[in-house]
């Protein structure tokens, strides 16, 4: 499945690259679904094998479809072969997830990925975003 095939669906989590084990996929899906029911914002995660298999315009269109104009959306896109991570957020979430926070979170992901701890990097990033949003909204 490439990004074009995902445009019409509202996925919470897709592991197109088959990076995570089945149990890890279930844990990430449960984590996201539980948070999205009760937490601030709606977080989704897409893992692709190679972003280059999708044109930059297709990736941008997908992000626009899922995030732009939706103030509460947050999307992680991980591209394994390209070694790229993208964290996009709707307008309201951008105010809560500062540029400094996003850079630190992406740096933490890259550090874990370098050690081939993909699950730890992905889960850690999602939990960091959840914690940041919960903390800021409780103030």
Question: What is the spatial order of strands in the main beta sheet?
Answer: 1-2-3-4
What general form does the structure show? globular
Helix content: 40-55%
Ranges with pLDDT <50 over ≥5 residues?
A: none
Quaternary structure type: single chain
Looking at the overall shape, the CATH architecture is Roll
Question: For the residues shown, what is the average pLDDT?
Answer: 81
How many domains make up the 3D coordinates? 1
Structure annotation, total helices: 6
CATH class: Alpha Beta
* Rg on CA atoms, Å: 14 Å
Could you describe the 3D structure shown?
This protein has one domain (3-138): Diaminopimelate Epimerase, Chain A, domain 1. It is built from 6 helices and 4 strands; from the N terminus they run H-E-H-E-H-E-E-H-H-H. The protein has helices at 3-6, 22-38, 56-66, 91-96, 99-114, 118-138; strands at 13-15, 42-48, 73-79, 84-89. Helix 2 (22-38) links the parallel strand 1 (13-15) and strand 2. Helix 2 (22-38) packs parallel to helix 6 and helix 5 (99-114) packs antiparallel against helix 6 (118-138). The protein is globular and about 35 Å long. The mean pLDDT is 81.
């Amino acid at each position: 499945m490439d990004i074009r095939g995902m445009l019409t669906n509202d996925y919470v989590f897709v592991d197109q690259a088959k990076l995570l084990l089945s149990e890890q996929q279930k844990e990430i899906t449960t984590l996201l679904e539980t948070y999205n029911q009760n937490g601030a914002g709606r977080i989704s995660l897409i893992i692709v094998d190679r972003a280059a298999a999708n044109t930059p315009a297709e990736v941008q269109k997908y992000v626009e479809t899922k995030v732009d104009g939706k103030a509460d959306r947050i999307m992680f896109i991980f591209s394994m072969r390209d070694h790229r991570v993208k964290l996009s957020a709707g307008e309201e979430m951008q105010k809560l997830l500062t540029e400094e926070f996003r850079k630190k979170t992406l740096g933490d992901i890259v550090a874990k990925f370098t050690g081939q701890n993909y699950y730890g990097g992905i889960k850690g990033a999602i939990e960091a975003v959840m914690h940041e949003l919960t903390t800021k909204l409780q103030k």
